[in-house]
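ok trying again, last paste got cut off:
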Amino acid sequence: MRLCIQCGADISTPELRQKVICPDCKKANIKEYKKKRRERIREEKGSRICVVCGKEFSRWGTTNVCSEKCRKARYEERNKIARRKYYLNTLRKRRGVSDTVACVVCQKEFPRNGQTKTCSPKCSKEHKKNVRIAYRKKLRKKAKIIS
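nice, full thing came through this time. structure:
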């Protein structure tokens, strides 16, 4: 049996010449070493000003905020616009609420639902007919260019 050189606890070890530290003291030493290392790196890198509250803080990594509270506030602020956009674009369409759009055939205003471009089945047939005609003209032009 040997005694820990830091806390004096009994430790069983086969090494007689080695200085012995118990597992608890070893963890504490590693934790203290890492803490000192972080502080040294922070001192080397300098300090920054928090983008949320304006307070000066020690820099660690690439962070721009001083605390968890400021990080959450920044996240909310940055995503507020994105969430609103998502709500307006996606959720409203799912519920059937949509913007008004002009019909491509008769120019009449109608509530748009999905990708609808026409206001009625009659205009839809007319639009399909116009699209087919335009496509055929395009094919004829290509055929003339090739010939």
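cool. Residues 50 and 65 are 5 Å apart (CA to CA). Helices lie at 23-45, 68-94, 121-146.
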